[in-house]
Amino acid sequence: MKRLVVICALAACKSHSASHAERIPATTGEIKLDGELGEPDWSKHALRHMLAADGGGQARPFSEASLLHDKTYLYVGLYAADENIQSGEFFDVHIGALAFHANAIGTVTPEIAGVKASIDRDGTLDDPSNDDEEWVLELAIPLQATGFAPGVSQVVTVKRCDTPKDHIERCGTWSGTVALQ
């Protein structure tokens, strides 16, 4: 077994056994992509992680990643507290071999076939003259694009950097091995 782990590490394996992974819960109802994360599944069932600052502790401004799935999609909820929402801000997301940016406009790059996205912003985009509150991005990613399958887990990493009005960039990251429940 130890040899297999070393070989896998050397080969940069993209998927892992699901036995030690956190579980992404299945939805119990329909997820409406509206950028609100208002369905009960998001607050009661989702696998949720706060992003941590580079030096440890909770990232500031606060950021969170939430995961759910159904038979067709992996749902990703990305929450970003933000006093000055800029169109160039983004979350950097890696799901196994799949890597993309999801920005404050609601765009996913590079484009991934079948991905649906919705954004909600509490504030004005690209207007530093006022104080904004947050932006939330809700994504539906086809399971086939993620590499998830029964018994297979993936390393998921979510990172966000933000430069508040004090002009000091702050970053937060969460990474974990997850599998479908």
Please explain how this structure is put together.
The chain has 181 residues and is mostly beta strands. The protein has a single domain (16-180), classed as Immunoglobulin-like (Sandwich). 10% of the residues lie in helices and 44% in strands. The protein contains three helices and 13 strands, in the order H-E-E-H-E-E-E-E-E-E-E-E-E-H-E-E. It has helices at 2-10, 40-44, 143-146, and strands at 15-17, 22-24, 47-50, 52-53, 63-69, 73-81, 90-95, 98-103, 108-109, 116-122, 134-142, 152-162, 170-180. Strands 1, 2, 4, 7, 8, 9, 12 and 13 form an eight-stranded mixed sheet that branches. The chain has a five-stranded antiparallel sheet with strand order 3-5-6-11-10. A hairpin with a 7-residue loop joins strand 12 and strand 13 (170-180). It is globular and about 50 Å long. The protein starts with a helix and ends with a strand. The relative contact order is 0.24.
SSE arrangement:
Blueprint: H1 2-10, E1 15-17, E2 22-24, H2 40-44, E3 47-50, E4 52-53, E5 63-69, E6 73-81, E7 90-95, E8 98-103, E9 108-109, E10 116-122, E11 134-142, H3 143-146, E12 152-162, E13 170-180
Parallel strand pairs: 2-13
Antiparallel strand pairs: 1-12, 3-5, 4-13, 5-6, 6-11, 7-8, 7-12, 8-9, 10-11, 12-13
